Amino acid sequence: MLSIEGTMHNGTEAAGHIKKKYEYFLDDIKSTEDFVKYSATKSKMSGRYYKIHCGNESPIKSRDWLLIELKAYRNSQD
Q1: Neighbours of 23 (CB within 10 A)
Q2: 19 in helix, strand or coil?
Q3: Fewest C-beta atoms under 10 Å: which of 1, 33, 61, 74?
Q4: What is the pLDDT tens value at each position of the chain, 78 positions in all?
Q5: Which residues have a Cβ under 8 Å from the Cβ of 34 and sit 6 or more positions away?
């Protein structure tokens, strides 16, 4: 689950929201890290960070979660 502006969204809803932001910032995105920065970190209107909620674990900022997963993925490809 992803919280956006304090409202919980399932994966499909969250992906749709992030996809819209991706399309808006497409010209600025040159790397995976840019995608995370521009599309999947926080609200551009309120400045509130998006948070990932996984089971019983404490919520984590989406930026942090995505960059941890990206690093793990890249390490697995070596």
Answers
A1: 10
A2: helix
A3: 74
A4: 777 777 888 889 999 999 999 999 999 999 999 999 999 999 888 899 999 998 899 999 999 999 999 999 999 997
A5: 28
Look at the block and give the residue holding tokens 């990932």.
52
What tokens does 29 get?
């995105």
Cα–Cα dist 37/25, whole Å = 10
Q: Helix H segments across 1-78?
A: 11-24, 32-39, 62-76
- Angle at the Cα of 3 from the Cα atoms of 56 and 28, rounded to 5 degrees: 125
Which position has the token pair 């890290």?
A: 33
Taking residue 65's Cβ as centre, other Cβ atoms within 10 Å add up to: 19
Query: The tokens of 39 are what?
Result: 């599309």
